[in-house]
Design brief:
Elements (H helix, E strand, L loop, with lengths): L9 E3 L10 E3 L17 E6 L5 E10 L2 E8 L12 E4 L3 H11 L2 E7 L2 E10 L5 E7 L1
Antiparallel strand pairs: 1-6, 2-5, 3-4, 3-6, 4-5, 7-8, 8-9
């Protein structure tokens, strides 16, 4: 299940969504900017309303401008969003965790589907000593 990353990706909702919707439709052509996802691939996006409400979602599939998501990730709440809401791929704590876990960079950590990850990133210094680089909360 590899995470997919891509720079400078943004689109806009074509239709209003409710807090329970798991399918989002982007404005025509916006989907092409988002990563192509194989069956086990995923990426994270943030929905940002004009009023400043945000929700992080996990994108699990994309077909053109239609995307399938798991709502309310990393401690955010599922909410309704209006057509025209911005949808962006962003680096979030979960993205850092997933990349770190895949590369073996992490020390002790915990994660659940509805809570932010906690843990830390370790790196080896020039002497080969493991050093705590950053704490994720």
């Amino acid at each position: 299940m590899p995470i997919k990353l891509k720079n400078n990706v943004a689109g806009f909702l074509a239709t209003t969504i409710s807090a329970s919707d798991t399918g989002l439709v982007l404005q025509s052509g916006n989907g092409a900017a988002f990563p192509t996802l194989a069956a086990a691939d995923y990426c994270y996006a943030t929905l940002i309303s004009t009023g400043g409400t945000i929700e992080i979602v996990k994108i699990t599939a994309r077909a053109g401008d239609a995307i399938t998501v798991v709502r309310a990730q990393e401690g955010t709440s599922a909410t309704g969003f209006a057509a025209g809401t911005r949808v962006e791929l962003r680096i979030t704590a979960q993205v850092v965790y997933d990349v770190g876990a895949a590369t073996g960079m992490f020390g002790a950590h915990t994660s659940t589907a509805d809570a932010p990850v906690t843990g830390y990133i370790t790196v080896k210094d020039e002497t080969g000593t493991l050093r705590k680089l950053a704490v994720i909360t």
